[in-house]
Design brief:
heterotrimer, A alpha/beta (337), B mainly alpha (269), C mainly alpha (270), A: 337 residues, D-Maltodextrin-Binding Protein, domain 2, five-stranded mixed sheet, 15 helices, 46% helix, elongated, C: mainly alpha, MetI-like fold, 11 helices, globular, disordered C terminus
Chain lengths: 337, 269, 270
């Protein structure tokens, strides 16, 4: 054989070897995950960025793309359509979604105590929740408050239709109350620091729904059925890193906000105030004893029942199909507050 | 008697023949809608079928849940009132700025500045200053729809042939005379074009106003439905909103044809 | 006695002289805004003063980093690209539907239909389809601003003197020739008017697109800061946005002046 032929053969072999290694190496172990938030950036989104920044997602072999949200309804649609593998959504919404054919399940909880709240001027004559009857309430339509109102109304003994609702832009929540265009505003308690920018704390009255017996679940993490079936490790790894992020955030809120500020143009003082209030809704016995993200079967059944009764949907599935606790971190991160 | 029947029948036939492409496009649209859902397997709660959507409007048991008449009445009155205000004030301001160069230098930049701002960003301010209801919604709709009428009308008033102006000035025509007899008639096509643009903007503006703050209206209903992922009434609201836009546009087109019958008929829709 | 038509001053220096009233007006607006905030003691969460807002734009804030360069460049590129697309596609589509009456009857209702829909309600659906990114933002801005261009251009193409058309048809001019040599030049004032309207709408469309479908840009600053009622950056962003609209409008006016110099003294410009 001539040397030229040998050289050519050598080149080809070397090339093939390179290609082989490249192919084998290219088959990386990093999985891409799209995580759909429920809204624009708020303090309670910090933990996921903490996990990102500290490399905890990467440790689990995940490359997470955190996507800004458009509301709980959009998250259900996006996850169901495959735009995201996981997302945050207010519990009643995926429940209703599943009843309408969305293949989503709740895999972890965010807020343990329900943060729904009603704000009002103390001098408006409202002294207990029942006084809301016959009044005007301003609420952004997409908030969970309007969706769950009939349930809460029955709890406090008020006819749900006795309240006049005014739909408002989310940005106008504070303005609506400050200008007295409405007697009350339904807003998450986590928005209290911003209410107080307009209304002095001593004049601002509020009732947290959970304090009056409202026992449903709120923000939760959801995942798609086929992801759960075909790639359970992905869900498990994600939740582990995410709740690790929560654990860290609850212990180091200021740093968490500083990390959030690296990714988004936020005012750190305001967001820290927001986060401190968020933490109040994690300070429950459940989270102390069972860990952050724990799903209580009874509460889940209550939530599903509320959706069935007040949303006018048939729930053609068993409660157990709506959620699963099998992907929560093991051991759970307990919140020793 | 026979003549009447014949003419009615003839009218219907002529109507269909003349507008068959529009009816065709409507049918094509509905077909496409259903096709997209079926082919891509889109779930009802993301995009509902035409049948489900129209059921919320026409099937009594379902329709009565939504109190359509109230919401339609609210939105329609907002749209009509804001359109009237837009047309009147838009043309008036255009007259002002064509009449006086000084006013033009002052008003045009202000209008341009204000019109580049998305009104929805001012939701808190609107709520504080105007509360909620018919008035703020009309104000917001006018703010959104006003600019095209001004710009088009002013262009039309200005875009007169130099030679013609030279001629009548030579003949000692006064400024008011020039305005009345030359500029205004010349600007009619521009005015109608501007009004046509404003029709859809008034509709959108009324809905934006309802998004900012409202207790009734199709925008109100749309938001509620969207929040509860109740897609059929949401899409039904969207359809109704578009129908208003189309109707208002058609009305202005008819008005245009009446006002300017000398136009090349072939070119008109 | 023939009255001379007042000629507009020419050249850059003269252009400045012509435009200083507009600049003055903007300045006065700022003063009025500042005065209003002082005189009526308007709280900051309602309306911040222009000084505070501009402060957030130019002075590095201690506990917030807004990255203005990135946000402004994002929005500016969206606006410019979508305006170019709107202008080109709008004029082209208008020529198409003016050419064919049949096509016009088929497509026009669809355009009107699309344009009556409040984009901020449909944007989530668009997002589900096309995902986040520059394309979606440009699409949204396009959907908001294409209509005026089409309406005006079709009107302009149709608005030709019947007698003139009759004359050239008698002279055996083809439809294509009529289009090219008569209709299109005749419609220039209409087209520019449409483009001026579209300029501000492109800006609004881009911002609305960012409200829904973006994690950067001036619109994003607005929507993000609304959560905490952090109004100074909101109004800083809005100031830049409105100036962007004026700039684009002015640019179109400039092009108009160049394209139709014979209308020098009469065009409506900033």
């Amino acid at each position: 054989m001539n040397t030229r032929g040998n050289k050519a053969a050598l080149v080809v072999v070397v090339f093939l070897l390179f290609a082989l290694t490249a192919w084998a190496g290219g088959e990386s172990e990093v999985q891409k995950v799209n995580f759909q938030l429920n809204w624009k950036i708020t303090g309670d989104h910090a933990p996921y960025y903490v996990a990102q920044e500290k490399g905890w997602f990467a440790e689990e072999g995940l490359e997470v793309n955190i996507i800004i949200g458009q509301g709980s309804g959009y998250t259900v649609q996006a996850v169901d359509m495959g735009k995201a593998e996981l997302g945050i959504s207010d519990a009643p919404v995926p429940i209703k979604g599943r009843a309408q054919g969305a293949n989503v399940k709740i895999v972890g909880i965010v807020f343990d105590k329900h943060p729904n709240c009603m704000f009002f001027w103390k001098d408006s004559g409202i002294t207990e929740p029942r006084d809301i009857a016959g009044r005007t309430v301003a609420v952004p339509a997409a908030d969970g408050h309007k969706v769950m109102w009939p349930a809460f109304a029955r709890l406090i003994g008020v006819d749900p239709d006795s309240v006049d609702f005014v739909n408002i832009e989310p940005s106008a929540k504070v303005a609506a109350l400050a200008s007295k265009s409405a007697d009350a505003v339904f807003e998450l308690y986590t928005g209290k620091p911003f209410m107080e920018k307009a209304i002095p704390p001593e004049k601002l009255g509020y009732f947290i729904w959970a304090d009056y017996g409202f026992n449903a679940y709120a923000h939760s993490i959801i995942a798609r059925d086929d992801v759960i079936e075909e790639n359970p490790e992905l869900v498990r790894s994600f939740l582990k890193a995410a709740y690790r992020g929560w654990d860290y955030t609850l212990k180091n809120p200021k740093e968490a906000i500083a990390i959030l500020a690296k990714y988004h143009p936020i005012n750190q003082d305001d967001y820290l105030a927001n986060l401190m209030v968020v933490m109040d809704f994690f300070k429950t016995d459940r989270y102390k004893n069972f860990g952050i993200g724990y799903i209580d079967p009874d509460r889940m059944e209550t939530t599903i029942d509320l959706v069935r009764r007040y949303q006018g949907v048939d729930i053609p599935f068993e409660p157990e199909e709506m959620y699963t606790s099998e992907f929560l971190p093991d051991p759970m991160y307990k919140y020793n507050w | 008697m026979k003549a009447v029947v014949l003419s009615v029948k003839g009218f219907i036939i002529r109507f269909f023949v003349r507008h068959y492409t529009k009816i065709l496009s409507l049918a094509a649209f509905l077909l496409l809608w259903q096709l997209v859902i079926t082919v891509f397997g889109i779930k009802q709660f993301i995009i509902p079928s035409p049948l489900a959507t129209f059921s919320t409007l026409f099937v009594p048991e379902i329709a009565q849940r939504y109190n359509w008449l109230l919401h339609i009445r609210t939105t329609v009155s907002e749209v009509l009132i804001s359109f009237a205000v837009t047309a009147a004030s838009g043309i008036f301001v255009a007259l002002l700025i064509t009449w006086s160069k000084a006013l033009r230098r002052i008003i045009t930049p202000v209008l341009t500045l204000l019109n580049s701002l998305p009104k929805i960003a001012f939701a808190p301010l609107f709520l504080i200053w105007f509360g909620y209801g018919l008035v703020p919604n009309v104000i917001i709709a006018v703010l959104i729809a006003f600019f095209p009428v001004v710009i088009n009308t002013a262009t039309g008033l200005s875009a007169v042939e130099e030679d013609l102006l030279d001629l009548v000035r030579y003949l000692h025509a006064s400024k008011p005379q020039i305005f009345l007899k030359i500029r205004i008639p010349n600007s009619l096509p521009y005015i109608f074009s501007g009004l046509k643009i404003s029709t859809t903007l008034c509709v959108v503006g009324a809905i934006v106003g309802e998004f900012v703050a409202s207790a009734s209206g199709l925008g109100y209903l749309l938001k509620d439905a969207q929040a509860m992922i109740d897609s059929p009434p949401m899409f039904a609201s969207l359809i109704l909103i578009s129908i208003f836009g189309l109707s208002l546009f058609a009305a202005i087109s008819i008005l245009e044809r009446l006002a300017m019958p000398w136009q090349d008929r072939v070119k008109e829709s | 006695m023939r009255q001379p038509i007042r000629q507009e001053p020419r050249g850059i220096g003269k252009a400045l002289k012509r435009h200083y009233p507009s600049v003055l007006v903007v300045f006065v607006l700022f003063l009025v805004w500042q005065a209003a905030v002082w005189v009526f003691s308007i709280p900051e969460y309602v309306l911040p003063s222009p000084i505070t807002s501009l402060g957030h734009l130019f002075v590095r804030q201690p506990d917030a980093f807004y990255n203005w360069k990135l946000q402004i460049s994002t929005t500016v590129s969206e606006v410019l690209i979508s305006f170019a697309v709107t202008a080109a596609a709008g004029i082209l589509l208008a020529i198409l539907i003016a050419w064919s009456q049949w096509l016009r009857n088929l497509i026009m209702p669809f355009f009107i239909f699309v344009n009556s829909l409040p984009l901020i309600a449909i944007a989530p659906i668009i997002l589900l389809w096309f995902g986040y990114g520059l394309f979606t933002n440009i699409l949204i801005a396009f959907l908001v601003s294409f209509f005026p261009v089409i309406i005006n251009t079709t009107t302009g193409l149709g608005e030709v003197d019947d007698d003139l058309i009759d004359l050239v048809r008698y002279l055996k001019a083809s439809k294509w020739q009529i289009f090219l040599k008569i209709r299109i030049p005749n419609s220039l004032p209409y087209i520019f008017s449409g483009l001026k309207i579209a300029s501000t709408m492109c800006v609004v469309g881009a911002i609305v697109g960012e409200f829904v479908a973006s994690d950067r840009g001036l619109g994003y600053i607005v929507i993000n800061s609304q959560f905490t009622m952090d109004t100074p950056p909101i109004f800083a962003a809005l100031i830049v946005v409105s100036l962007l609209g004026v700039a684009l409008f002015g640019f179109v006016s400039l092009v108009e002046r160049i394209a139709m110099p014979w209308r020098q003294s009469e065009t409506l410009a900033v």
